[in-house]
Amino acid sequence: CETCGEEEAKYRCPRCMKYSCSLLCVKKHKLALSCNGVRDKTAFVSVNEFTDLNLLSDYRFLEDVGRTADAAARHPTVHSPTTKKFLYFLRNKARKCNIDLRTLPIGFTKRRENSTTFNGTEKKFYWHLKLVFPHSHAEYTLKGVPDDKTLADILKPYIDPAESDPVVCQRLKIYTVSPQSDVQILMKIENRKQNSVRYNELNASRSLLDNLKGKVIIEYPTLFVVLKTLKNDMVILGQ
C-alpha cells in the first residue's frame, strides 16, 4: 500500500494509479492528492501501449460527447420564442426576395450549422454557403457571404490560379488548370423524386441573390462546381 506502507495492496486508483490496501487508505490518498478516483478518459497513451481497450474507451467517450451535444440541442432554450421569431423573420425576408427558404427541426445537422443572417440596416442577406467540387472530392463552407456578391467572385479564392490559396489551388488543380468557360455552377432542385434528381444551372456573372430568386432553399444554398468537359451524373433541368 502506497498510503500506509504496511498492508498488502488490494486496490489501484483508476485516476493516479496509486496502490491502496483498504477503503480508509483510499480515502486518505484522495484527500492527500486531491484525487477524485475517476479515470481520466483523455489521458495520453503512447502508440506502443495503445490496446483494443483504449480504442473502445475512446469510442465510448466520443459517444458520450455526442449524447451531451444532442441533449444541449434539445434544451428548452433552443426552442425559445426568440429562436422561432428569428427563423420566422428570416423566412419572411427571404419570401420578399422571392426565395422559398425552409428550415429544418432542431437536431438536424443543417439546422445546427446554418449561420445565415439578415442585416436590417443594409437590407442584405449574409448567407451560410457550401461549395462542393465533385471532381476533386472537396467541400468548403463559407460564412457571412453577402447576397450581392457575384458567384464568380465567390469562386475566385478557390479556382483562380492567381488568387487562390496554394494548398486549395493544389487540391482543386483540375479546376484551376481548366479555362473559366468550362466551369459550371449547379444547384440541386428540391422537392423532386429520388429517382428524378435535377439541377439548375446558375449564372456566375450574376449575384448570389439573383441566382437564388424563384428557388427553394433548405436552410442554406449548396453549390456544385463542375466542369463541362468531364462526365458527371448531374442532369440539368430541361436536358
Automatic annotation (TrEMBL):
Annotated function: Required for box C/D snoRNAs accumulation involved in snoRNA processing, snoRNA transport to the nucleolus and ribosome biogenesis.
Family in the record: Belongs to the BCD1 family.
Give the PANTHER family listed for this entry.
BOX C_D SNORNA PROTEIN 1, BOX C_D SNORNA PROTEIN 1-RELATED
Report the protein name in the record.
Answer: Box C/D snoRNA protein 1
Q: Which gene encodes it?
A: Znhit6
Q: Which CDD domains match?
A: zf-HIT_BCD1
Offer an example of a GO molecular function term for this protein: zinc ion binding
Q: How does it assemble?
A: Interacts with FBL, SNU13, NOP58, NUFIP1, RUVBL1, RUVBL2 and TAF9. Interacts (via HIT-type zinc finger) with the RUVBL1/RUVBL2 complex in the presence of ADP.
Ranges of residues in domain HIT-type: 1-35
Recorded GO cellular component terms are:
nucleus; pre-snoRNP complex
Keyword vocabulary terms for this entry: Isopeptide bond, Metal-binding, Phosphoprotein, Ribosome biogenesis, Ubl conjugation, Zinc, Zinc-finger
Pfam families noted in UniProt: BCD1, zf-HIT
Task: Tell me the Gene Ontology biological-process terms attached to this UniProt entry.
Answer: box C/D snoRNP assembly; maturation of LSU-rRNA from tricistronic rRNA transcript (SSU-rRNA, 5.8S rRNA, LSU-rRNA); snoRNA localization
Can the keyword Zinc be found in this entry's annotation? Answer: yes
